[in-house]
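User: My instructor asked us to take a sequence, write out its structure as tokens, and then describe one feature of it. I'm not sure where to start. Here is the sequence I was given:
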Amino acid sequence: MNVTLERKDKYAIIKVHEAKLTSGVAPELKAEIVMLHHEDFRNIIVDLSEVQYCDSSGLSALLVGYRLCRDANGTYVLTGVQDHVRKLISISQLDSMLNVIPTINEAVDLIFMNEVEKQLHKEE
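Assistant: Let's start with the prediction itself. The structure tokens for your sequence are:
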């Protein structure tokens, strides 16, 4: 699978360079997500702007990231989601769980807002 990883201070970005997120690609994406989790990244952005099609195994890989970030009290965001993938998320009734944000910049803003909010709650 062709992905780009970008590690920042508070988050990591995975950019998927595949047109189809299917069973041939999903295990590698899942492995990248798990690797970032083991590196203590609790905030992950997955850029799907090049992904035109996703099947259930691709969706399953994306859900692994959601669960790992949630369990680490982090934020998991999907960006650049194309129509087909958005419909699959909606049909699967995952749109209320998953953060689907249009751009990476907006996703970064969401992560920083969530981090500030967590800090404020710790200080109370």
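For the description part of your assignment, you could build on this observation: The two ends are 44 Å apart (CA to CA). Try explaining in your own words what that tells you about the chain.
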